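ARCHIVE CARD
CATEGORY: sequence design from structure
SOURCE FIELD: tokenized fold
FIELD CONTENT:
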């Protein structure tokens, strides 16, 4: 059995108009998917699938906690995740997209949602995430502040708020990271 087999949803084989799945994820899931934003966590994922004339509406509700690294002191911190995601899927000749609608081959009729779940969680993480006031690793944040002050001479790091521009990030990743993730899953 592949690592992500339990996230395969058989759309073509749906007997009823509605179906519901518990696809909760844990540390093992994050370790296997190996995404850049989250390595650990526990998130309850409920997926409801509604079959329409020629489209499947997949609605995800995600609630849980992930462990990320604090922007200020780099120690681990818990971050609550309460988010929703939506996919619209249609069966077709081959893998593809039509606007917002994903196309999967009718011959297979199955979609693996593991990477989409990861994406919904990653998208729910705010750009800046730091410990509550006073909870940071003081030694580490002190060192980092000094380092940043030294390296900020010709950059604008205004105070403790460290932000990274969206545009710069995008320019450095010419390959859509979603495809990298999907490839990983498909090759598993
Ligand atoms: Zn911190």
């Amino acid at each position: 059995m592949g690592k992500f087999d339990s996230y395969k949803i058989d759309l073509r084989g749906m007997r009823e108009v509605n179906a519901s799945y518990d696809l909760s994820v844990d540390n093992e899931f994050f370790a296997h998917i190996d995404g850049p934003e989250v390595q650990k966590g526990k998130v309850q994922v409920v997926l409801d699938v509604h079959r329409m004339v020629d489209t499947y509406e997949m609605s995800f509700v995600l609630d849980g906690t992930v462990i990320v690294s604090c922007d200020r002191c780099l120690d681990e911190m818990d971050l609550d995740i309460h988010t929703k995601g939506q996919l619209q899927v249609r069966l077709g000749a081959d893998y593809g997209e039509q606007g917002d609608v994903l196309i999967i081959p009718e011959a297979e009729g199955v979609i693996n949602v593991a990477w989409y779940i990861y994406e919904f969680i990653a998208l729910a993480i705010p750009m800046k995430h730091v410990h509550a006031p006073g909870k940071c690793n003081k030694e580490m944040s002190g060192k980092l502040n000094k380092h940043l002050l030294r390296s900020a001479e010709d950059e604008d790091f205004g105070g403790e708020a460290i932000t990274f521009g969206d545009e710069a990030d995008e320019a450095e990743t010419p390959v859509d990271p979603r495809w990298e993730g999907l490839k990983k899953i498909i090759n598993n």
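CARD ANNOTATION: The beta strands are 8-10, 18-22, 40-51, 56-69, 76-92, 96-98, 101-105, 110-112. Residues 70, 72-73, 75, 130-131, 136-137 surround zinc ion (CB under 6 Å).
SHELF: design records, drawer C
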